[in-house]
Amino acid sequence: MRTLDKSRSFGQVFGMVRVRYWQDGVYFDASGQEVKDEADKAADVEAQPQPTREELEGMHWTKLKTLVNALDLEYSNKDEAIEAILERQA
After folding, report:
1. Looking at residue 36, what DSSP letter applies?
2. 13 and 34: one domain?
3. Quick count: other Cβ atoms within 10 Å of Cβ 41?
4. Residue 1 and residue 40 in one domain
5. What kind and span of H or E run contains 23?
6. What 3-state class would DSSP assign to 8?
7. Is there a single domain that holds both residue 8 and residue 42?
8. Do 41 and 66 share a structural domain?
9. Which of 20, 33, 55, 70 sits CB 3.0–4.6 Å from 51 for a disulfide?
10. Residue 86 and residue 47: Cα distance in Å, rounded?
11. What is the number of H-type helices and E-type strands within the chain?
12. What is the reported pLDDT for 47?
């Protein structure tokens, strides 16, 4: 099993379960040990349930603005943001 050589050039990896570094085409964990298991290399993304109207109404406007911007929409106010998000979910 290989270990990360931090005296040489290496890259940091984000968004993967155990992988933190990359060097010479090999993935390494936070302790510098090689990661061979393909499942550990998979993106750490889980399907998130869509928020309900009640959850959206309980959110702070800044969180709603972030959601609306992620949908490439323009934020104008909380009520319109909720409607836009729910419309996109339908």
Report:
1. -
2. yes
3. 14
4. yes
5. strand 21-23
6. coil
7. yes
8. no
9. 55
10. 17
11. 4, 3
12. 54
Who's near 1: CB < 8 A, 6+ residues apart? Answer: 33, 34, 36
Residue 37 amino acid letter: D
Looking at the structure, do residues 63 and 81 belong to the same domain, yes or no?
A: yes
Phi-psi region of 69 (alpha: psi -120 to 50; beta: other; left: phi over 0): alpha
Query: What's the pLDDT at 17?
Result: 78
CA–CA separation, 40 and 29 (whole Å): 9
Same domain, 10 and 41: yes
Burial class (CB in 10 A: 0-12, 13-18, 19+), 28: buried
Q: Is 27 helix (H, G, I), strand (E, B) or coil?
A: strand
Which tens digit of pLDDT belongs to each residue from 50-78?
A: 889 999 999 999 888 888 888 888 889 99
The model's pTM? 0.46
Across the beta sheet with 26-28, the strand order is 11-12, 21-23, 26-28
Say which DSSP state 49 is in. P
- Inter-residue contact 35 to 29 (CB < 8 Å): yes
